[in-house]
Amino acid sequence: MRALVRSREAERIARDRGVDETVIGDLEDTRGLISAAVGADGVFYIGPAFHPRESAMGVTMVNAAKAAGVRKFVYSAVIHPSLSKLTNHAAKRPVEEALYESGMTFTVLQPASFMQNIELEWKRILETGLYALPYSQRARVCYVDYRDVAELAALAFVTERFDNGTYELSAPGGYSRIQVAGMISEALGRKIEAARIDFDEWADGAGLPEGSSRRGMQRLYANYDQYGLLGGNGLILRSVLGREPRGLRQFFRELAGSAQKAA
Which of 36, 116, 220, 256 has a Cα-to-Cα distance from 246 of 20 to 30 A? Predict the structure, then answer.
């Protein structure tokens, strides 16, 4: 397995996680990407969400993979790339189009909001007793455990079952933050309240600097406030995995168990 990284520190992390080879490169350097992809049978690609040139980088990666003779390209995109108001969604569409036109065998994964994003808030939830985000507590969002997405990505490389398919990936159900806080309460055995927080207060607490990512997250949460992120149909994920997708309750039980072991 070969990983494209941007620094020596990232190279060390990749090797610690089991990568056999590393190449230091840049997603805007076509020649470097071609060199990195030469000899690879497949490419797994995740774009830099909220980067102002995310689309261009993705298209460059697709074109470089094709030029390098790559046979299969697996792209981890996002659910509902037609949501034009959300830059991290709309930026995926040109990459998908380039991939469909590339002639390579493709698998496009369109995951819902990752359950692991809630894990980023876990310490603050435990400390404050609040699950607070900068949009309405009643807005419904659909989720997926990224381990299920990763399992499908791996299967796409070792079998032909998912060749030339685009898969919308979500666990069943769409949940408000009130409902999510209730599930966390069950897992922890104590009350967790759903709350709303000012965006700048949340972004500062999350260590999100000024720039495209912060602006993109602000647009995303403003859109969630009005519309949520609807989906929550688990049919495709259940079908491709041959089992029930991991759900939020299971995810929170695991997090709670890990917290108890660490205590």
Answer: 220
Per-position pLDDT tens, the chain of length 263: 888 888 888 888 888 888 888 888 889 999 999 999 999 999 999 999 999 999 999 999 999 999 999 999 999 999 999 999 999 999 999 999 999 999 999 999 999 999 999 999 999 999 999 999 999 999 999 999 999 999 999 999 999 999 999 999 999 999 999 999 999 999 999 999 999 999 999 999 999 999 999 999 999 999 999 999 998 899 999 999 999 999 999 999 999 998 666 55
Distance separating alpha carbons of residues 75 and 96, to the nearest angstrom: 8
Alpha-carbon distance 158 to 141, whole Å? 32
Together in a domain, 34 and 96: yes
Residue 35 sits at the vertex; the CA angle it makes with 34 and 37, to the nearest 5 degrees, is 65
Residues 99, 195, single domain; the answer is: no
Q: Tell me, yes or no, whether 153 lies in a domain.
A: no
User: Where do we find the tokens 């056999």?
Assistant: 20
Q: Measured between alpha carbons, how far is 134 from 118 in angstroms, rounded to an integer?
A: 13
**Containing structural domain, residue 188:** 112-144+169-231+243-263
Q: What is the dihedral of CA 5, 7, 12, 15, to 10 degrees?
A: 10
CA distances, 184 to each of 90, 126, 146, 162 (Å): 32, 10, 19, 34
The answer on 104 and 48 residing in a single domain is yes
Q: What share of the chain is helix, strand, coil (3-state, %, to 5)?
A: 50, 20, 35
CATH for 208:
3.90.25.10
